[in-house]
Amino acid sequence: MKKTEKKGLILEDYIDEFSYDNKRFGAFVSFNRIAFIFFVFLIISAIFSSKAIYLSSKKIEEKKIKLDKTDFRASIVDRSGNILAKTVITTNVGINPKLVVDKKKLIINLKLIFQNKNFKEIEKKIEGKKFFYIQKKINQNELDKIVLLGDKSLIYEEKISRIYPNKNLFSHIIGQIDDNNNGISGIEKYYDFELRKKNEPLQLSVDIYLQHLIRKELIKAKEFFKFLGSASILMDINSGEILSMISLPDFDLNKRKNISDINYINRTTKGVYEFGSVFKTFTFAAGINENIIEPETKFLNLEKKLPCGKNIIREYDEKIPSDLTAEEILIRSGNIGSVRVAQKIGIEKYKSFLEKIGILNKIEFDIEEVGEPIPFRWGKCKLATASFGHGITTTPLQLAKGYSIISNGGYEISPTLIKKNVVNNLTKKRILSEGVSEKVNIALRKIVTDKEGTAEFANVPGYEVAGKTGTAQKSTLGGYSSAKVNTFAAIFPISNPKFVLIVILDEPKISKEYVYKYRNKSGSFKGTPFNTAGWTSVEIAGKIIENIGPILATKY
Predict the structure, then answer these.
(1) Domains (ranges, CATH) in the chain?
(2) pLDDT at residue 28 above 50?
């Protein structure tokens, strides 16, 4: 084996990494020579790159439109500091057709950079002689290539842009801005002044991880139940802080949507619904608060039918016994029994109770897209139907507030999207009598655990879920349709109430494919002939609590 010694460095002529023998030309290339050539190449490349960067920046500087720094808006973050909305500087690239010298060459060069563009349309626009954008919010790689073309017809425009990294996730909460950087909906509008004037981020009460998990379950549910839309609210019942608020369908905030489109209404705050039997909880609580009934109060000889004007009030289930206690009426969701409780309370006291818990009047909130309950004239028949949630409307947000007050000890709260310190209940204004919450919460728990209850599918082990179902027919101009709004209002953990979860499905359909699993029992079954709340909203709420429970237990 031949060895070559050169200046103390021993090289073996068979080692590829250091040298090779070019037999064709009979030339030997040393490692040192290769290294030298490579070094020279790097120097030349560095000089060329520096010049290109300089020329690029110079071209951009010459052609860009000056920014108005007053258009900057403060960031919006979730309760943990995760960015939900942020202002950045982006670059738009446009073409001034009047400056195009060689259209064919320009098109060829642009095709190499933008392979997915419709260049037939671009050619037409060039012929039109009016300035147009070829790419907005261009990425840095594309921008570098565009600049190196050196074409005078290409115009660069720096623009202050609002980006939303989570796209659809918070669309109805965050809201939108217009082309002039003005807030036009949601938080962006309600806090427009603050976002323009402050430098520090606006911190919301919502949690990005909870929002993601709940939205995921609602989207999954739509595959089976084919509903028109859905909504959910997760709120701390002691502070009023909203941890998650979702309305589907939603939209990508980076792609502006017509906010007047009714398909994209914020159902959680703007939607006004008849909620059906979830109102029976209010009737039960009002009776206890006014010292008119106790959970053990007996109602005997309850009818199966009850006249109300030209209409007839019926029980949804003819198997409901005619003799029930007030608590059993709530557990079994009796219509006639709820009417009898309301009749004992009377119009004025019942109306006053609903006003106390925030059901009847428009609520003050952190966004302007808030619906207002439809006004009506009180009478004996209206009292009867309102007692079981028929002919009386409110919003999901107000429903969440009402259930929170009933379950948190009877203290006033104000729902909010802004993070704040939890206020001790002792400092709050009490609006319900002491002991009401305890009695109501016991009954709500039995709705989930008892065999006669309507919310068995929400009995998630470890989380002590309580709540009330509601299945309501949708009102029309001529009366009521067969389409339903299904609702479940959940409180958990009921031994130390912390959270309210409202789940609403708008016009769910019967699913033959959905697999139901008993949470405290073995076994499962597929499909059901029913599309009532107990089979839809309750099931989805249970799934949600299973997924978010570990986060809530850890963080809250």
Answers:
(1) 3-49 (no CATH), 69-203 (3.90.1310.10), 210-555 (3.40.710.10)
(2) no
